[in-house]
Design brief:
Length: 210
């Protein structure tokens, strides 16, 4: 009797799984509810069953989709910049927000772009903001390439780890990978907030001393 897992395994054995991973990695930057990490983690679990899909191809396809999505979001930010400048960033608060974003990207652009890739929704905000403030596209492409490859490798190998840990129970392998990814995401966000708080306190002390 066929189990619930067999149709999914047949799908994972086909080229459609690579297409799905690439498309989802691209779309989740534009539509943050698209579960691209889940797709990579699940395919990583399937790879422990009979070696397919191929881990290297999964990582390359996932990274390519993420890179394309990040740069599309950046292009949208560049395209929307004139409108945003006129309607959203024209007042005092808007100008202050833009200056703050420009300062953060100038000081921490690489870290923000790479770390943002690991935060659902964060990758969208960073990419669009970088486009809005005209962060140099060449630098953005370089950092998104690093972030996309790191993210795709991390997500795929989490799935492979989960599948290896629960060889006979693939669903548990998927859940283990997703839980681990959620924990890492929370830790990254906590660190980001702590760093942001530290910078605010440092600037406040500098203003008091001046």
């Amino acid at each position: 009797m066929e189990s619930w897992f067999d149709p999914l395994l047949r799908f994972a054995d086909s080229a459609w799984s690579y297409l799905l991973v690439g498309v989802m990695a691209f779309l989740d930057v534009l539509v943050p509810i698209v579960p691209s990490e889940t797709a990579l983690i699940t395919c990583g679990v399937f790879a422990t069953v009979d070696g397919t899909p191929n881990l290297f191809v999964l990582i390359v396809v996932g990274a390519a989709g993420a890179f394309a999505g990040d740069n599309t979001a950046y292009a949208i930010g560049r395209w929307a910049e004139p409108f945003a400048t006129r309607r959203l960033l024209s007042g005092a608060r808007g100008k202050k927000a833009r200056e703050q974003a420009e300062r953060w990207l100038a000081d921490w652009g690489g870290a923000m772009i790479i770390i943002g890739r690991f935060i659902p929704g964060g990758r969208t905000a960073v990419a669009v903001t970088a486009g809005l403030v005209r962060y140099p596209w060449a630098k953005f492409r370089g950092f998104t390439a690093i972030g996309a490859l790191t993210w795709a490798t991390y997500s795929t190998m989490l799935g492979y780890w989960g599948g290896a840990a629960f060889k006979e129970e693939p669903l548990k392998g998927v859940l283990a990978g997703l839980i681990a990814a959620a924990v890492v995401t929370v830790l990254v966000e906590v660190v980001r907030r702590l760093v942001s708080l530290h910078r605010k306190r440092k600037r406040a002390r500098a203003r008091q001393e001046s």
